[in-house]
Amino acid sequence: MRFLTIFFSAVLLAGSANAATVLTGSADWSSAEVACDDRVPLDDVFCVERDGYHISTSMAYPDGVTYLHDDSGASESFLGRVDRKGFSVRSATIIIQNLIWKASTKPMPPYDDDDTALRKWAFHNKPYDVVLNIIGVNDGEVVGQKQVKSRKSHLFDIKFGKTFGEVDMLFFQLSIPSFDHFFDFYEMLEPGQIWCGEFCGGAIVERISLDDPAPVPLPASLPLLGGALLFLGRRCIPAAGSAGVAALWRKAGSRAEFSSRA
To answer: Has this prediction a pTM greater than 0.85?
Structure first.
């Protein structure tokens, strides 16, 4: 039993899985800023280094792992390893914010004490999706694409498939129409007008799970596997010239004869 344990331990070490990194929340962005990766010259972003990864985020809204925002925020961001090695993307938690509204096409109602009728008229429906495009790139080529969209503010837990199994850069792109912001001034709206609240929308990557490159390449662990097999061979097969060897061969021969008769 101990020999089997040694054997399977060697097999597991020879093909060990990559270490996982889970990025969550936001760091102290103001003190952690570093130079951005020169492969991705994006505007209106600054970069941080966390757990071996470069991450860009909005200068105006540094929430989450990265935060894209239509109101003076970044519409694109990226994530990549500092050493530029490949990695894989497992899963992510993403919040889509959608504050795009359309007023009713009916005439504006008269004012009341608490603006209940006016608010119902102004917040008649939501006409557009807020879309986050996630793009996996390896050696300058797009290898994976995923889209998260919602017509309301919503939290998504998403899984990534095998096309994100080996990337060296991950890009996030916010796609959102822009309209005038009216805040609480609903009386300024026209019937049927599309408008936004404090902002039109955004996307927050709250958490992302990544597989780092394997710390030990496969060939480096093969000697261990070979040593384990050699050790097993020495312990399981009797020494040459002993009676045990003859008995072992007789057993093997009888099994082969039985197999041939079957």
So the answer is: no
